[in-house]
């Protein structure tokens, strides 16, 4: 049995507030699940994030109040948290008194999302993400699948699919093909299960799509090796879905901003056949052709420069 954990980065709406939408899946054999969980847990303990969710986007961003705290770097973890909490309370009170209701509610939301990481400096938070990405990159048994949709060039009229439906169909197709190929010539059929971040906006849609794929297949393949419909779970309680979040974030930041620090660490896990990347695709139409590392890796005999 192979487990494929799925999460997204960016918005699927057009135009939305990101130019790309990424749906990523990280597949591991079920017998390696315990090893993966222990390795991730060890890194989280190193940074005092034992019970925290790895929400890469919130971990990676700047926390302006930290730079305003005197000698923040020299404080211990508890003192840092107390100082940040005090600064944030002061700011929320200021916004309330200024009657800036919209800004108040957005700021309060931002603070809640990043609360678990305030004891770490930005450098430490980036080091944490890099340690996790290095760990994933060393999982030779894992395979990364991702559909990276450039929404500027995406035409729903041609695909007859929305952005997130197109991405989901691609992930299903590539995971199915992977299971078929690794089981070729063996007596036991390889089976896979999709485990998706619990997103109420897509749960019903993707469940319906998966039932359809089991009946008639996707545009590219029949579906005989993936069992049932996706299992939707709370990402806050499942470390491996959080790893899919990190992979999706790393890919999007590379395509949108050229940031390749995390991308270079996880991209080696992309599923490949005969030296060509088949598990990750940059869905774009550009002139001249796109020269990103994903597109270059689809050219036979060419290895992208790290």
What this model shows, in words?
It is a single chain. This protein is of the alpha/beta class and 306 residues long. 47% of the residues lie in helices and 14% in strands. A six-stranded mixed sheet has the order 5-4-1-2-3-8. Helix 1 (33-46) runs antiparallel to helix 6, helix 4 runs antiparallel to helix 5 (101-114) and helix 8 crosses helix 9 (200-216). The longest helix has 21 residues, at 77-97. The radius of gyration is 21 Å and the shape is globular.
Question: What characteristics describe this protein?
Answer:
alpha/beta, 12 helices, 306 residues, 6-stranded mixed beta sheet, Nucleotidyltransferase, domain 5, 47% helix
What CATH first level of the domain at 2-44 and 132-296 would be assigned?
A: Alpha Beta
Question: What is the fourth-level CATH superfamily of the domain at 2-44 and 132-296?
Answer: Ribonuclease H-like superfamily/Ribonuclease H
The structural class is alpha/beta
Order of helices and strands: EEHHHHHHEHHEHEHHEEEH
End-to-end CA span: 32 Å
Mean pLDDT: 92
* Architecture (CATH level 2) name of the domain at 2-44 and 132-296: 2-Layer Sandwich
> Got a strand count?
8
């Amino acid at each position: 049995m192979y487990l494929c954990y799925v999460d997204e980065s960016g918005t699927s709406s057009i135009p939305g507030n990101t130019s790309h939408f990424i749906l990523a899946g990280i597949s591991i054999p079920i017998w390696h699940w315990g090893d993966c969980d222990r390795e991730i847990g060890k890194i989280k303990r190193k940074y005092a994030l034992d019970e925290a969710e790895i929400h890469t986007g919130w971990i990676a961003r700047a926390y302006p109040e930290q730079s305003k705290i005197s000698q923040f770097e020299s404080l211990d973890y508890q003192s840092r948290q107390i100082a940040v909490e005090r600064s944030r309370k002061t700011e929320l009170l200021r916004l309330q008194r200024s009657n800036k209701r919209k800004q108040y509610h957005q700021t309060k939301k931002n603070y809640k999302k990043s609360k678990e990481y305030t004891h770490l400096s930005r450098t430490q938070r980036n080091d944490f993400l890099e340690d996790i990405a290095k760990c994933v990159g060393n999982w030779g048994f894992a395979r990364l699948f991702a559909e990276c949709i450039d929404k500027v060039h995406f035409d729903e009229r041609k695909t007859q699919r929305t952005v997130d439906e197109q991405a989901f169909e691609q992930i299903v197709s590539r995971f199915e093909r992977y299971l078929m190929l690794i089981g070729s010539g063996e007596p036991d059929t390889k089976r896979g299960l999709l485990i998706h971040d619990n997103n109420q906006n897509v749960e019903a849609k993707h469940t319906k799509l998966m039932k359809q794929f089991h009946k008639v297949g996707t545009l590219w393949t029949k579906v005989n090796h993936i069992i049932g419909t996706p299992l939707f779970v709370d990402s806050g309680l499942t470390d491996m879905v959080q790893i899919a979040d990190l992979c999706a974030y790393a890919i999007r930041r590379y395509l949108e901003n050229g940031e390749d620090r995390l991308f270079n660490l996880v991209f080696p896990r992309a599923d490949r056949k005969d030296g060509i990347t088949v598990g990750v695709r940059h869905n774009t139409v550009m002139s001249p052709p796109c020269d990103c590392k994903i597109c270059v890796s689809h050219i036979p005999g060419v290895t992208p420069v790290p």
